[in-house]
Task: structure prediction
Amino acid sequence: MKSSSDPVWRFLAPSFLFVVLFSLYPIIESFRLSFYRMILTLPWLGQKFVGWENYQDLFSDPVALQSLLTSMAFVAVTTPMEVLLGLGMALVLNESFRGRGWLRAIVLVPWAIPTVVASQMWRFIFNDRYGLFNFVLFGDATDRYWAPLAEPGLALLSIMVADIWKTSSFAALIILAGLQGIPRELYEAASIDGAGAWQKFRHITLPLVKPALLLALLFRTIDALKVFDLVFVMTQGGPADATNVLQFYGYKKSFAEGMIGYGSTIAVAVFLLSLILSLIYIRLLGARLLAQERPT
Amino acid sequence: MKKIIFVAGVSVIGGFSLLPFLWFVTTSWKTATEISAIPPVLWPSFHWEHYHAALVQHGLLHYIANSAIVAGATTVVSIVIASLAAYALARFKLGWGRYYLLLLLALSMFPQIAIAGPVWRLLSALGWLNTYHGVVAAYISLSLPFATWVLTIFFKELPYDIEEAALIDGCSRWQALRFVVFPVAAPGVFTAAILVFIHAWNEFFFALIILTYPAVQTLPVGIALFPGEYTMPWGEIAAASTIATLPLVALTLFFQRRIVQGLSAGAVKG
Result:
């Protein structure tokens, strides 16, 4: 039993097995299925090769276009908000004060809660008859109460609010790790030179925390493109497809309607979109990893 | 003045993070009249009916058991598989090791919908739909990227000399991992395990498509599909949500330092 006699593949084989069976094969299979027409739950009806027809349908499908725009709007609003709020939280958490451990634990609460629970919670807060949201806006004037989840203009905003609440703390943690890497001496030196709080923030904190901000932004972008749970529970994609984000539309076509061929076409489109984002991400951050020297 | 602003900041952050959820938790102790009251009732009458209804009528204990089995099995198996891979990636001189890590990173970013149909068909062909092992298999592949990354980072940081001594004394690589590296790396392994567990406990999308029989469904599916045709049973939903969240809040409060460390190791050091 010499060290050299242990083949490396024995350590990696289980990992390979899962990655190939449940990640790589399904992606390739999604591509293949996107050229077929078939019903998910009725496989005995067979699959019919239809060439690029599903893709032609996708490009002329107004709901798909709306879905893409909805997802884009969701990403564009939530991610900057989350990073901004996360930065605020991280700046406070980076100070030393009594009860810091408690505040850090409290900030983690929205992150730890199941998204489905957060969705039900916000659905309750946005209730049209006795939701806290309406009471805060209109008080006792119940005749003026809104139904935010039933109005096309407000439903997406409501889901954005829920997402920002749920995930800002994740951004805060990443940014906090960045802040903790800034050497204290820089601030001390700046103080000696007579710099104020704002100048220190502007000229020391901000430039040095930029990589962490970028990382938080990219992580949140990739996650925001996957939003599903909030939509499923709060609006089911409605009203009038106003919250029908890509992941939900793909789910609806593939599983609720069973159109696995067309559903796969949507899946491929979402996949390519994420792939582009992932490549940008890996270029920005993976380069550092590739350059890194191996230990020992 | 500066102190006042700081205290205000702390209060706003604490309130923003905690109050919406506390509001939902207090709802679980209110009577139906209190729930729909305008102006809202701030202090509940600590009415436990909804817990009884959720646990007995809606079989919440059953969902809890399913979630515990699925999340527990996912955590144990993922950590074992990821530790093996991470050990190889951290210690063997593999030219392509870093490309495998990048592949895992890329996989973790793909939207679930990109693989959902084929995963469903694969599980269907295996007869694994509506089974624990079916959903656990899908969850393992979801958690491997994160677990492998975090563990590789932890293993790389461990000093090599004890292990080297063990190898020179005739230990196999396998024994070195099992008896030397694993015990020393226990804190890191534990951190990864907590995060994998929380993720598996909360996962909804794959649970929704794989588990269609209530007998095997997990808590998130039970809570999302909570039955209520004309009026939403908010008290019961809030009670079920509180119960579903309790283990997570407990984990977070106890292990917040580790969780923060694990999340930032996975994110920043990568």
